[in-house]
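Entry type: protein chain
Record version: 2
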Amino acid sequence: MNHSKIGQKGASVGGGTAGSAAHIAPDTGRLRRYDKAYAAISKKYWAFIGCSGVSAVAAILCLIGQHWICAVGALLASVFFVRKALPCRAPLATIRNVYCNGNLVAAVVLQSAPLQVACLAAMQFDGGPAVYGLQVFEDWLLPDLSIAPGTRFATVAFYGRATPPRSRYWGQFQPRALTWGTGDQEALRLALAALDEEDWQIISVLIKKAPSLRPGEVAFFDHALNFMETLRYGCVPQAPAVLK
């Protein structure tokens, strides 16, 4: 892993470019264990591929036995399962790309039992006035990290527009703990160091001001840290925000 790139500008994805990205190639084994969305899609993908393989073997056996109708049916089933698997490839690739080119986003453990974490992201479009988005999660796994309250850690995120689109800022972000994609402690340390100290101070202020947030909701605050609104997810994030 090239540690020298951590914290540098990411590649352009979907019209957005992260001002500070992790630049890691995630370990897909870790993603399947800890990134729940990736694990669910991956499980579906390999289930379809497995069914396609079984159907293909059945088609070959039917051909050997000269059961032509059964062979055609098994072959069609194999093609059907391949077609079902193909749509899974794009979201899997998008999630892997988040760990490389997504924005580095600050996160902190709020409580350990049950585990609760808060994530803060700058949501404004490039050159616009500061807008902050805050999310709270309660079902995360944090391998290789302390879960003591106050523990800081890095996450990565792609952003999406709200429905209807906002003119000044992104409508949502979906953070993923960087430790879901790598166990490299030096990479995790450098990613954490790339985040601004001001982010942690803002989190501590906004947690006290934020309304009760349900899963899939983002609380927005203006440059003066005044509460603006709460939005639910209206689309799937596809790109890093253009922040710098």
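Comment: The first helix runs from residue 28 to 34.
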